Amino acid sequence: MKQPIRITVDPECTLGYIEYREPSSSDGSLRVLREPDGSVEEYGSKDGRENEPTGVSVEVSQDNEVVALEILDIDEPELVAIARDYARDNHLAFPNDIRAAAASRDPAA
Questions:
Q1: Kind and range of the H or E element at 101?
Q2: CA dihedral in degrees (7, 36, 63, 95; nearest 10)?
Q3: Would you say the pTM of this structure is higher than 0.70?
Q4: Which regions of the chain does DSSP assign to beta strands (E)?
Q5: Measured between alpha carbons, how far is 96 from 109 in angstroms, rounded to an integer?
Q6: How far apart are CA 27 and CA 31, in angstroms?
Q7: Tens digits of pLDDT across the chain (109 residues)
């Protein structure tokens, strides 16, 4: 299971960012949506669900490795559940409490 290298929460809003590797200039992002069967899937701009609202995205490298997960509102349980399920399905460690994990990794904390 790949461990996060950095976990941050924006102090001005509820945006959470869980980074698994250093980003590069060739990275892109995909939206992560819950399927009707309960699974989670990635969608790009060319997929048929591009207009559905989402609060979770995954940044991927050019070699299709996960760089980071971004959650637009960590206080929204369904968004955290989507990110957690995506992490589990992709063998990525995911914190039980994003705010606590971010605070424990903050050198100022």
A1: helix 98-105
A2: 20
A3: yes
A4: 6-9, 16-19, 28-34, 40-43, 56-60, 66-71
A5: 19
A6: 14
A7: 999 999 999 988 899 999 999 877 667 888 898 888 999 988 865 566 666 778 999 999 888 899 999 999 999 999 999 999 999 999 999 999 999 999 887 544 4
